Amino acid sequence: DSGVTQTPKHLITATGQRVTLRCSPRSGDLSVYWYQQSLDQGLQFLIHYYNGEERAKGNILERFSAQQFPDLHSELNLSSLELGDSALYFCASSPLWGTPAGYTFGSGTRLTVV
Amino acid sequence: AQKVTQAQTEISVVEKEDVTLDCVYETRDTTYYLFWYKQPPSGELVFLIRRNSFDEQNEISGRYSWNFQKSTSSFNFTITASQVVDSAVYFCALSENTGNQFYFGTGTSLTVIP
């Protein structure tokens, strides 16, 4: 157990729908990162939050949004889902911002859009 | 811009053979970090090693060893006496000094045949 908890583990939904993926970081970690792993794009960075504030954005679609709450858990919201959004979504956490030390990945949420 | 190249898409070896997975990276940063992760069929990302750009010492951990050469921008990973349990996809990744995001290679799928 890495200490980073992602729920749900699996999600199947229809095109056009909206889903929310949840991530609870390791205890004490202030940074949360989201990654998408799809067959055609590989593992890509989506967004980084540090202590509730957005710090960096990667290849995140406008249909996707994220936030980090005061208790430090984070949610990734995916809307108007398309077949191509089917992927494994990883969350990672680290203690600080500005160092990759202690960077820990969760076990992922597998999203299938049908 | 940061980039990680894993030219080997798939490798198959017979059990007990040694195998080397190649990783070549590009970055303009003088301080950066390199990583290897293992992704077994279950899907989670398992951390194997982190190396910073100032530490070019090779490392050995059991049957695993890593060869970091800044002169060729390579960070290769060797598994000695491979086992069936080593079958997985292996990712090389690069992080800039800020640690805000990882840049992953496309992965090498290793199959160890009994």
Largest interface: A-B, 27 and 22 residues
Distance between the termini of chain A: 30 Å
Mean pLDDT rating of chain B? 93
Computed CA radius of gyration of chain B, to the nearest angstrom: 14 Å
Structure characterization notes:
The complex is a heterodimer of chains A (114) and B (114). By secondary structure, chain A is an all-beta fold. In chain A, 0% of the residues lie in helices and 53% in strands. Chain A has no helices and eleven strands. Chain A has strands spanning 5-7, 10-13, 19-24, 31-38, 42-50, 53-57, 64-68, 74-78, 87-94, 104-105, 109-113. Chain A is globular, with a radius of gyration of 13 Å. The N and C termini of chain A lie far apart (30 Å). Chain B is an all-beta fold and 114 residues long. In chain B, strands 2, 5, 6, 10, 11 and 12 form a six-stranded mixed beta sheet that branches. A four-stranded antiparallel beta sheet of chain B has the order 3-9-8-7, with no helix packed on it. Chain B has a two-stranded antiparallel sheet with strand order 1-4. Classes of the chains: A mainly beta (114), B mainly beta (114). The A-B interface holds A 2, 33, 35, 42-45, 48, 55-56, 58, 88, 90, 94, 96-101, 103-108, 110 and B 33, 35, 37, 43-45, 47, 50, 91, 93, 95, 97-107.
SSE map:
The complex is a heterodimer of chains A (about 110) and B (about 110).
Chain A: E1 5-7, E2 10-13, E3 19-24, E4 31-38, E5 42-50, E6 53-57, E7 64-68, E8 74-78, E9 87-94, E10 104-105, E11 109-113
Parallel strand pairs in A: 2-11
Antiparallel strand pairs in A: 1-3, 3-8, 4-5, 4-9, 5-6, 7-8, 9-10, 9-11
Chain B: E1 3-5, E2 10-14, E3 19-21, E4 24-26, E5 32-39, E6 46-52, E7 59-61, E8 64-69, E9 74-79, E10 88-96, E11 102-104, E12 108-113
Parallel strand pairs in B: 2-12
Antiparallel strand pairs in B: 1-4, 3-9, 5-6, 5-10, 7-8, 8-9, 10-11, 10-12
